[in-house]
């Protein structure tokens, strides 16, 4: 039976991860002002707007941050935790659940950036067409993180700024997200 629960848990994580990724890309695309004429941007907008439009009436953007998309990503993480805990027959205390889902959100964003930076770096290293929609979208999303180090860590023709940013993101996962998960676990057991 635990094997079936593990498989079901993995499928739930994939489904919720896909939904969270869609809304996170929408959030980051708006924040970084991704080219709307990109077919991927249009796809993301088309499939997230029916959910976000009603929420944005109540929760408008703050600067360039789409708070409605951020809320949806966090609620997705929260619901995923509730479903997985429910499958295990355990329901943690609400404060622990809220903190753990916040840690999930932060971890998801950091891991998303690590993957996108790695993929974008690999594509640019392999001289992929810079006008290709995936390369343009990924490049625009990662530029705010890479810009402060751009050109400062070049050895030969290789720019090591993506490597340094990935190391910083990995450290953030260890030093910020892990303690937040621990706090959530402690609070979950209190109830």
Q: In terms of quaternary structure, what is this?
A: single chain
Total strands: the figure is 2
Overall mean pLDDT stands at 93
Order of helices and strands: HHHHHEEH
The count of helical stretches stands at 6
Structural notes for this entry:
This protein is mostly helical and 191 residues long. It has one domain. The chain is 77% helix and 2% strand. The protein is built from six helices and two strands. The chain has a two-stranded antiparallel ribbon with strand order 1-2. Strand 1 and strand 2 form a beta hairpin. The longest helix is centred in the middle third of the chain and has 32 residues. The protein is globular and about 55 Å long. The model has no long low-confidence stretch (mean pLDDT 93). It holds the Pfam family CCB3_YggT. This is YggT family protein. Keywords: Membrane, Transmembrane, Transmembrane helix. InterPro entries: CCB3/YggT.
Summarize this structure as a short list of keywords or feature phrases.
191 residues, transmembrane, YggT family protein, mainly alpha, membrane, CCB3/YggT, transmembrane helix
Quick synopsis:
With 191 residues, the chain is mainly α. It has helices spanning 2-31, 39-58, 67-88, 94-125, 133-146, 161-190, and strands at 154-155, 158-159. InterPro entries: CCB3/YggT.
SSE blueprint and pairings:
Blueprint: H1 2-31, H2 39-58, H3 67-88, H4 94-125, H5 133-146, E1 154-155, E2 158-159, H6 161-190
Antiparallel strand pairs: 1-2
Helix pairs in contact: 1-2, 1-3, 2-3, 3-4, 4-5, 4-6
């Amino acid at each position: 039976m635990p094997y079936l629960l593990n498989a079901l848990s993995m499928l739930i994580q994939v489904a919720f991860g896909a939904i969270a990724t869609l809304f996170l890309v929408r959030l980051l695309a708006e924040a970084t002002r991704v080219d709307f004429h990109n077919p991927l941007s249009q796809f993301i907008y088309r499939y997230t707007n029916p959910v976000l439009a009603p929420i944005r009436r109540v929760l408008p953007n703050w600067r360039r941050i789409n708070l409605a998309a951020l809320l949806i990503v966090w609620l997705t993480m929260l619901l995923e935790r509730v479903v997985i805990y429910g499958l295990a027959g355990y329901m943690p205390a609400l404060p622990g659940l809220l903190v753990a889902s916040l840690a999930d959100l932060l971890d998801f964003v950091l891991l998303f950036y690590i993957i996108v930076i790695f993929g974008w770096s690999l594509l640019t290293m392999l001289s992929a067409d810079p006008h290709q929609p995936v390369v343009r979208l990924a490049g625009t999303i990662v530029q705010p993180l890479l810009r402060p180090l751009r050109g400062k860590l070049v050895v030969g023709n290789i720019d090591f700024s993506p490597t340094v940013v990935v190391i910083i993101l990995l450290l953030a996962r260890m030093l910020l997200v892990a303690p937040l998960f621990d706090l959530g676990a402690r609070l979950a057991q209190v109830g």
